[in-house]
Amino acid sequence: VELREKIAELKRFTQDSDMDLSSEITKLEARLERLEEDIYTNLKAWDRVQIARHPNRPTTLDYIEHLFTDFFECHGDRYFGDDEAIVGGIAKFRGLPVTVIGQQRGKDTKENIRRNFGMPHPEGYRKALRLMKQ
């Protein structure tokens, strides 16, 4: 975290002044990449579980927001109801219409309960199947 902050600070400083620190920034970015690689290649099983459960980890809606445009969410399975653990709909990816389907967990306890902790009910699977067939 400190190294990322230092890189960002150097980039801001370079933009504000006439000094060229691009070689220093490149070295720091390479060092950060090596550190991250060392950390993530030597993880124990429990460390991997903790990373997977991290509350700030991106969710399906985060990916949809950053990758797609014109997302229109479809609700319900047309039989029983809507399962909020499955998010799906129609969007555009680089201008092409696509169907997007994913599991969605909550970012806090209240949302986790509403979305059943990301565990779909049968109506969620039916909703996903309906979206795949359209």
Automatic annotation (TrEMBL):
E.C. number: 2.1.3.15
Record key words, sorted: ATP-binding, Fatty acid biosynthesis, Fatty acid metabolism, Ligase, Lipid biosynthesis, Lipid metabolism, Nucleotide-binding, Transferase
Keyword flag GTP-binding: no
Alphabetical list of InterPro entries matching this protein: Acetyl_CoA_COase_a_su (IPR001095), ClpP/crotonase-like_dom_sf (IPR029045), COA_CT_C (IPR011763)
The keyword Lipid biosynthesis belongs to this UniProt entry's keyword annotation: yes
Superkingdom classification of source: Bacteria
Recorded GO CC terms: acetyl-CoA carboxylase complex
GO MF annotation terms: acetyl-CoA carboxylase activity; ATP binding; carboxyl- or carbamoyltransferase activity
Known catalytic reactions: N(6)-carboxybiotinyl-L-lysyl-[protein] + acetyl-CoA = N(6)-biotinyl-L-lysyl-[protein] + malonyl-CoA
Top EC class of this enzyme: transferase
Transmembrane stretches, start-end: none
Pathway connected to this protein: Lipid metabolism; malonyl-CoA biosynthesis; malonyl-CoA from acetyl-CoA: step 1/1
Pfam families in the record: ACCA
Residue intervals of the CoA carboxyltransferase C-terminal domain: 27-134
A GO biological process held by the record: fatty acid biosynthetic process
Entries under PANTHER family matching the protein: ACETYL-COENZYME A CARBOXYLASE CARBOXYL TRANSFERASE SUBUNIT ALPHA, ACETYL-COENZYME A CARBOXYLASE CARBOXYL TRANSFERASE SUBUNIT ALPHA, CHLOROPLASTIC
Identification of the protein by name: acetyl-CoA carboxytransferase
Species whose genome carries this gene: Bacillus paralicheniformis
